[in-house]
């Protein structure tokens, strides 16, 4: 196939061995690349029962055929490992020039196994591997690490680095690159467990595409549409615009999901932030949308002004979820998460769990003044520092809400807002039925990026009383569409710029690879990738009881009425399994695996 090198680089840090291994064309044909390729490599290299923080857990970085081709938004790196937060598949995407640098090395992916004996930087220069001691980099923020290494190693290097959170094994630590984070599921903790502070990559070899002229014309057309009305909200205000809208319709998670409305929503809304705190905006690597907005504190407190990159998920998690209504406090907390290298959603949600524990008088094993209260912005900042350092109350909160609740007990699991250990994103599912199903069955836990089923709910395409099969079909379709985009490594904000996403994406894929790809081919690949990830989870110990929702969203309160219930959820999950062709217990029959072409791709 054009657009790929057809091989990956495997590095064993324990043995300091390096091997180049082939990737069959059938893998790219069946799983596309990106998240599909990363999942295939994870299945191949991660043994059942592997300790997520042990040397046997592989850390995978993968690109796609679209990376480096000029197709807008396609420069995303896919990261996969067994998650230390959930124990199942942990997959993330990050928009950055790192993806292009990896593709230029002559490899489509990098698989890192083992554990370095001392803190290390892995250097991959045009496919040649070397190691640099990292003792002098410990304790530094990812951005400082990248600056240091680029100055030392020379031009063209792109750097993936962890912060203190990754060094200390915070279970939701992230990997940072180009100011962006592969944030959810704890890949930074996996990297830290391997003794890796950073990976520096440079290359000079991109594979040829099948039809350069045809691709250039198609890419120009798509870039033009990417600057049109379909992406205007992201370009003009950014995703922070969602906060005020979600508050109006009652689905803005507030005070640890105790309510869907936040009294101070206007104060931290996207429009207010833009007018009173906005500084500039940026686009990700190879992006023509430009959704990334930057902000600055304006209150003069807490020392020098703080600059922060802020998106809706960070805004809700460190704002309304914790009851914090001062935008300056939220901006400082967002910047601190980036400096420490940790996922803001899980950090904010775990702190919100602790806040409710305090409110209910639950003993967390630390002095009360260490436990933040709802609305106390400075206390959130102190809690983040404690989490990164794993000191005091931070050592408990670094485990995430599920493990923290298991340790503390006292009924606190009732308000630990997670699925499979991954904390809920910024959509209250009590009024979003299709999303609720998508969150419950999601392979990596509660994730809106792996199931954009909320679009079905917000568009009113399904009646609240729609038949279970209709809702299950919509949830599965949303999941498979996300798998396609994540494997092509196209930004999800681009999806509405397509008139017919599967057909147009297939045409682009044909121009890049030379393979006569159809819309049906991509749709089948999306289904195959979802099944591949589910198969990995089953091998790692997943059971039917893991597909569920937090008790809180299944019970109505005066502040937060719900359209959901346990019987309703069980009915929906059964229908979803039926739509998927899975058994009643959620496992994948061998005949189904063969029917969708998965059994030929995995051993």
From TrEMBL:
<dbReference type="GO" id="GO:0033726">
    <property type="term" value="F:aldehyde ferredoxin oxidoreductase activity"/>
</dbReference>
<dbReference type="GO" id="GO:0009055">
    <property type="term" value="F:electron transfer activity"/>
</dbReference>
<dbReference type="InterPro" id="IPR036021">
    <property type="entry name" value="Tungsten_al_ferr_oxy-like_C"/>
</dbReference>
<dbReference type="InterPro" id="IPR013985">
    <property type="entry name" value="Ald_Fedxn_OxRdtase_dom3"/>
</dbReference>
<dbReference type="InterPro" id="IPR013984">
    <property type="entry name" value="Ald_Fedxn_OxRdtase_dom2"/>
</dbReference>
<dbReference type="Pfam" id="PF02730">
    <property type="entry name" value="AFOR_N"/>
</dbReference>
<keyword id="KW-0479">Metal-binding</keyword>
<dbReference type="InterPro" id="IPR051919">
    <property type="entry name" value="W-dependent_AOR"/>
</dbReference>
<dbReference type="GO" id="GO:0051539">
    <property type="term" value="F:4 iron, 4 sulfur cluster binding"/>
</dbReference>
<dbReference type="InterPro" id="IPR036503">
    <property type="entry name" value="Ald_Fedxn_OxRdtase_N_sf"/>
</dbReference>
<comment type="similarity">
    <text>Belongs to the AOR/FOR family.</text>
</comment>
<dbReference type="InterPro" id="IPR013983">
    <property type="entry name" value="Ald_Fedxn_OxRdtase_N"/>
</dbReference>
<feature type="domain" description="Aldehyde ferredoxin oxidoreductase N-terminal">
    <location>
        <begin position="5"/>
        <end position="205"/>
    </location>
</feature>
<keyword id="KW-0004">4Fe-4S</keyword>
<protein>
    <submittedName>
        <fullName>Tungsten-containing aldehyde:ferredoxin oxidoreductase</fullName>
        <ecNumber>1.2.7.5</ecNumber>
    </submittedName>
</protein>
<dbReference type="GO" id="GO:0046872">
    <property type="term" value="F:metal ion binding"/>
</dbReference>
<keyword id="KW-0408">Iron</keyword>
<dbReference type="InterPro" id="IPR001203">
    <property type="entry name" value="OxRdtase_Ald_Fedxn_C"/>
</dbReference>
<keyword id="KW-0560">Oxidoreductase</keyword>
<keyword id="KW-0411">Iron-sulfur</keyword>
<dbReference type="Pfam" id="PF01314">
    <property type="entry name" value="AFOR_C"/>
</dbReference>
